[in-house]
Amino acid sequence: MNFKFNSPVQKIEDAVFTDKKIELYLKRDDLIHPLISGNKWRKLKYLLADARLQHKTHLVTFGGAFSNHLLATASAGAMFGFKTTGFVRGEEVKNDILFMCSLLGMQLIFTDRQSYQHKQELFLSRFSTDPEAYFIDEGGASAAAALGCSELTDELTETYDHLFCACGTGTTAAGIINGLVRNNLSTQFEAVPVLKNAYWMKQEIEKYLVKEALFNLHATYDFGGYAKTTPELLYFIKKFIAATGILIDPVYTGKMLFTVFDLAGKDYFKSGSKILAIHTGGIFGLLGMKDKF
Predict the structure, then answer these.
(1) β strands within 66-201, DSSP E
(2) What is the CATH number of domain 39-140?
């Protein structure tokens, strides 16, 4: 699986940062691959290597109807010669994301929401007799995924005072924190959960930490919960895209960047601070919200 990358870092210009004498940079992990973008490849990298090591040829994973993880897994499977199956949460639907998953060869199994909560049982109920089936949790959540995400910090050529990242399962956040610790970087990690009242995210992140580490949790920027939006958030996203030419989604990166801009306006950062925000990809999430803009 010879797939190497080093995503670029781009400075974001805005009056709020100029006025406060701070700098914001965006690590463009969305440019890693058209379909396996952002943290999706970082989280899948070592899982695919482990599947190959165990001579598994069938990747089985989970996601919602607009899951970028399902799309990334389907794409990675097609690219590296794996069969793929995706358990899809909820009733059977057709949309752009699932169309692309099917086009890439992924078998889709629609599952009621109650059964979906028990992913290991679902996996065993359908694939216990398939010796080549390999279980990948929703979003790729695992210690192996955290290891892949930790490598992001190895690519940094500048030092930053703060590093912001959106959080869904906490895996990416934990990996980046591990990378900061491994590289002896004093950068303050700032986690932005995208689920409602996700103060429990602290425990999910700590589950994958190699060493105990301090980080900040900004759990009040969920805008109503996972995949929920408000007119304020949508206005910010439209304004940001038009001003920068960088696509961001309302589920993850949009909420994270809104947080950075809002905190800057509230003097959260010291004058002279350098901030790095991670674009974790997932821009196809825009397709599920076309009617909201």
Answers:
(1) 83-89, 107-111, 133-135, 162-167, 188-193
(2) 3.40.50.1100
Inter-axis angle of helices 39-53 and 143-150, nearest 10 = 130
Query: Which of 64-68, 160-164, 224-228, 283-287 is least confident?
Result: 283-287
Could you report the per-residue pLDDT of 51-74, keeping only the tens digit for each?
Answer: 999 999 999 999 999 999 999 999
Residue 91 sits at φ, ψ, to 5 deg, of -70, 160
Instruction: From residue 240, give the alpha-carbon distance in Å to each of 99, 152, 204.
Output: 29, 24, 30
Q: Using alpha carbons, list the distances in angstroms from residue 272 to 16, 26, 57, 276.
A: 13, 17, 51, 13
Q: What is the pLDDT of residues 101-116, one digit of tens each?
A: 999 999 999 999 999 9
For 9-34+142-292, which CATH class? alpha beta
| Beta-strand runs (E) in the chain | 9-12, 23-28, 58-63, 83-89, 107-111, 133-135, 162-167, 188-193, 216-217, 274-279
Tokens 């990948």: give the residue.
136
Using CA atoms, how far apart are residues 289 and 283, in angstroms rounded to an integer?
11
Token pair recorded at residue 213: 């580490």
Bridge partners of residue 11, in order along the sequence: 25
